[in-house]
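Help wanted!
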Amino acid sequence: MRLGTALSLGGIVAAGPLIAACGGPSYDDWAATDGAAGRINLDDVQQAFKDSDSATEFERRVNEIYEGDGLILIRASQDGQTLTLEGWEDLNNDNEIDDAADDQLFSIVRGSDNEYDMRGYHGNGYYNSHFGAGDFLFTYLIISSLSGPRGYYYSTPPSRGTEMRNQRTTYRNSSAYGGQTSRNASYNSRQASFAGSRYQSSRGNVSGNRSSYQSTQRTSGSFRTSNSISRSSSVRSSSRSFGGGFGGGGAFRVRLRS
Ligand SMILES: *[C@@H]1O[C@H](CO)[C@@H](O)[C@H](O)[C@H]1NC(C)=O
Ligand SMILES: *[C@@H]1O[C@H](CO)[C@@H](O)[C@H](O)[C@H]1NC(C)=O
Ligand SMILES: *[C@@H]1O[C@H](CO)[C@@H](O)[C@H](O)[C@H]1NC(C)=O
Ligand SMILES: CC(=O)N[C@H]1CO[C@H](CO)[C@@H](O)[C@@H]1O
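Answered by r_m:
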């Protein structure tokens, strides 16, 4: 339909978009996306942390919020009274967190005062948030955990990778994802005015692991099929049916509390 309109305007007008479409996105286009930079809407992640009744629910919701290509995996540890939850992007795609290859995006720490500190890392390093008492997800994580590998009492089981990826693909094809991306866009403008220059400068603070990942994507050409950009080049309806499109079966649900 768009193409027809462009063609009816004449060959010269149509030539621009057609050539652009054939060439595909450039590496720089991809690298400029928040997904490539590992940036994520941390206000929505915090809300998901408060609302989720299980690790599974939290993992699914965080992956719906994120717009990058890797899966976000989590792990939790305890040191005395201090509980820490970390979120990492699985840059090497093996469905588990590898400190030597993956990239940490955020942490949520509960101190002995039962209060919480949430912060972002690298590209998200502008983000710091303190919030008050509540048990939230940690209660579930502690009760449900057997003591996990390397002192982490919870980490996303690698066997969940395929299911998480499928859920996310379904979600990204649904109209609900359009609602999430507008939330991400308004989060970005909020942070740009609130955190100002720290928000801008943290974008360029890329970890060693992410920078290796970016050059691998460049050399292999994988950036051309990245979800981070293919979405913005496709025409999405402006449907706001936020509750719709949660695929993956009745066992999961998202509660959108205010
Ligand atoms: C870059 O990010 C790391 C990890 O979050 C942080 O420790 C460091 O201070 C940041 N550097 C700059 C210049 O912001
Ligand atoms: C999502 O859309 C893409 C591209 O249109 C398609 O290749 C893929 O099969 C779809 N996936 C699902 C789960 O609908
Ligand atoms: C990934 O980060 C870890 C921790 O900072 C570092 O030890 C490791 O060398 C990094 N790996 C790459 C490939 O940059
Ligand atoms: C932080 C984040 O994910 N921001 C994205 C939110 O959605 C808008 C619109 O798709 C993107 O431009 C942002 O990069």
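OP: Thanks! One thing I noticed: The chain has two domains: 6-25+231-256, 37-227.
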